[in-house]
Amino acid sequence: MGPFQPFNWFRSRQAQARCRTALSSQTSLDAAVQEVSAVLGKGSADLALVFVSSHFASDLPRLLPLLQATLHAEHWLGCIVGGVVGTDRNGEAHELEQTPALSVTLLNLPGAVLQPFAVDTNQLPDLDGSNEQWQQWLGLDPSQLRSLVVLIDPTSSGITDLISGLDYAFPSAPCLGGIAAPHAAPHGSLLQGQNVASGVVGLAIGGDWTLEPAVAQGCKPIGPVFAIEQAERNVLLELSHDQKRNTPVECLQRVLAELNEDEREAVKDSLFLGVERQALLMGPSGTPEPRSAFLVRNLIGVDPRNGAVAVAERIRVGQNVQFQLREADASRQEARQLLCDARDRCGEEPHFGLLFACLGRGEGLYGCPDGDVAIARSVIPDLPIAGAFCNGEVGPLAGSTHLHGYTACWGLLRHAPLAISEVDPNA
Question: What is the full DSSP assignment across 301-318?
C-alpha cells in the first residue's frame, strides 16, 4: 500500500493530470498558431512546451504573444529546432523534418513543483567551488527538484562546463535537453515565459512528478573491448587486448577484417568509438551497484606515422574503449530495449514522452519517417510525444550527464508521489 498523503488526495479531487498536444505543418506562423490553438482548446495548464522549426526564425518574437492570446499556462518553455516532433489531433506522433512545423503541448500536473531558470553561460560559477554556488546561480531549490529540462542557444559558450555544473549542483536529478537550431535572425533561439532568449533556459521538475530517462546512442559494438595503455589528452597511442599491445590503427584493422561486406561499407561514414564510463547506481534492492556504459564519440583523425587515433573526448590510461558502428537495425533494437526498461521503471503508464533527437537520425538513419516515435509507440502505444531535432542532445549515461551526438534522449514524464519520509526526513 502506498503512503497516505492527504494533501495530494485532496488536490486530486480538484484537478486531474492532463496532457493536450497539437501539431501543425502550416506554412505561415499565424495559420499554424490558429490550428494548434483550435486543437488544444480552452483551459489553463501548468506548463506549455513549444517547439517551432527554424523556418519561422524571423517570426519568433511574434510566436508567444500569438499563442498566449488564446492559450493559458503558468510556465512556457521552448525553442527553435531543426525538426519538430509532435502529436497531432488524431493522436498520431510524427517527426517533421525540413518542413515548417509547430508543436505545442499543454500539461496539467497536480502536485508538481515547477521552477523555471534562465542563465548566461559567459560567466559560470567555479566547478571547484561549492555546489550551493551553482544552485544559487540557477535560482533553484534542490529540495524541490527531481529532474531537469535544459535548452541551450547555439551561440552559448561553456556548454560542457554548464552540463558538468548541473551534475555537480543536482547529482541525483536526470537532466535532459538539447541545443537549439542556429538561424540568421537578430535574436536568440529560446522561449521562456513571455520572452525570446539566448544563453540557457530550462525547467526543474519536482513534487509528485519526474522524468525517467532513456538515452539511445544508435550504435552496436564491433570487435573486442580494448584497454588504453598510452594516451595524450584525446589521442589514443596504444591499446591492448589479450595481453597484446598494438597501435589503435592496427587494432581497428583487425576489427574491420572480421566484419561482413555490408558492415565494412557502413564503416566508411558510420564508425565511432565508445569510451567506457563507470558509476555506482542504485539497484532494485535499494543498494548501490556498479554500472558501466560506453559513451559514443566521433573519431576525428588518424596519424599514419604512428598509428594514433584522435577521438572527440578526453581519455586516460586505464579506461576501456570499443569501436562502434552506427546503423538502423542496431538503433531500433537499442532504443526499444531502453524504452522498455524506462517504461518498467515508471511502474505505471508514463503521462508524456519528451524527445530530443539528433538531426542525423530521422529518415537519414532509418530510411523512413517517424523512426524514433514509431519505436516509442511500439513500446507505449498511446504515449503523447513532443520534442525536437537538435544540434546536440543532453542526457545521462552511467550516472553522469553528457552532451551527445546522433542520440535520442527520451524523458518519460511520470507521476511518482514521494513518501512522507522523502519529503521531510524528520517525519
Answer: EEETTTTEEEESS---TT
